What we know:
By secondary structure, the protein is α/β, with parallel strands linked by helices. The chain has helices spanning 16-19, 23-33, 47-64, 74-80, 94-101, 114-120, 147-157, 174-180, 189-192, 198-212; strands at residues 10-12, 37-40, 67-71, 84-87, 106-111, 127-130, 163-166, 184-187.
Amino acid sequence: MKRSLKLPRVYPVTDRKLSGLSHAEQVRRLADAGAAFIQLREKSLSAREFYLEACEAVAAAREVGVTLLINDRVDIAMMTEADGVHLGQTDLPPAAARRLLGDDAIIGFSTHSLAEAIAAAEEPVDYIAFGPIFPTATKTDTEPVVGLSQLTEIRKALPNIPLVAIGGINVSNIADVIRAGADSAAVISSAVAVGENIVRNFSSLTAAIDASGTSHVK
Length: 218
């Protein structure tokens, strides 16, 4: 695993249905709000439609100077020349994705238990995501809620690995997530719901962390 990746504290994930906006427009608005690292997530379009949306989103990311990862689809990350991919437990294995995408690509990997996180640390990934930390309505096929205490366990077991928390994170609990051990909090509904409010929502998340003076546990 690479361990040199510097993650932003807030890691927004796009969603067309929640925002009512194209992925490219979400990238532009999130960049306006200060986002530097964004994941494109699409679960309902055909492969062709997803590819076309991703092409526009990657072009937008290049224009505004943000890093853009594609959720799940290594093939689309390759074809669009995105910055990398975020993989789940049932997606292409990280080692295979690394062979296809090369050493410079960013690869993130979702985990849902301490055992999965420890195993992921041996894979050629750049960060590990862990969750769902809290209940979430964004995903209908979600794993059981893991909570903040397990997040802290993983931070203590893997102190040098970039760690992203995901699942049910919002302005009221994001500081707790960082305090519990996450380097970054991935947010979907709390950042992109109702597209015209993206800038306000994202800014509120970063402000909540700043106001708390929070840093993660060692």
